[in-house]
Write a structure and sequence with these properties.
Blueprint: H1 2-12, H2 26-31, H3 33-42, H4 48-65, H5 74-93
């Protein structure tokens, strides 16, 4: 199957444009992981309305607490988490 694919590329003159290998597609596949994770979560809901209710609440909570650790220093990350938790507690107490 791969041989016929390479032959077709060679016939079209595009052989050098397509790189075929075992791990060459990893970057593309890994970029889709957050989307696939959301898809799996959506499969649990039978009705679109209940999914929309859940996502409305979940997105506000998730966006509030989801901070990429790799993009900041530990002290700054911990300060942001503490501030987010304090704000969340004040919202829940109200």
């Amino acid at each position: 199957r791969l041989a016929s694919y390479k032959a077709a590329l060679r016939d079209m003159g595009c052989e050098d444009r397509q790189a075929c290998g075992r791990w060459l597609n990893n970057r593309v596949e890994n970029s889709h992981l957050p989307f696939r994770r959301r898809e799996r979560a959506m499969q649990r809901f039978r009705r679109m309305r209940s999914l929309q209710k859940f996502v409305a609440v979940h997105s506000s909570v998730f966006n509030h607490f989801n901070q990429d650790r790799s993009l900041s220093k530990r002290d700054h990350f911990k300060q942001n988490r503490t501030a987010a938790l304090a704000e969340w507690r004040s919202l829940c107490a109200a």
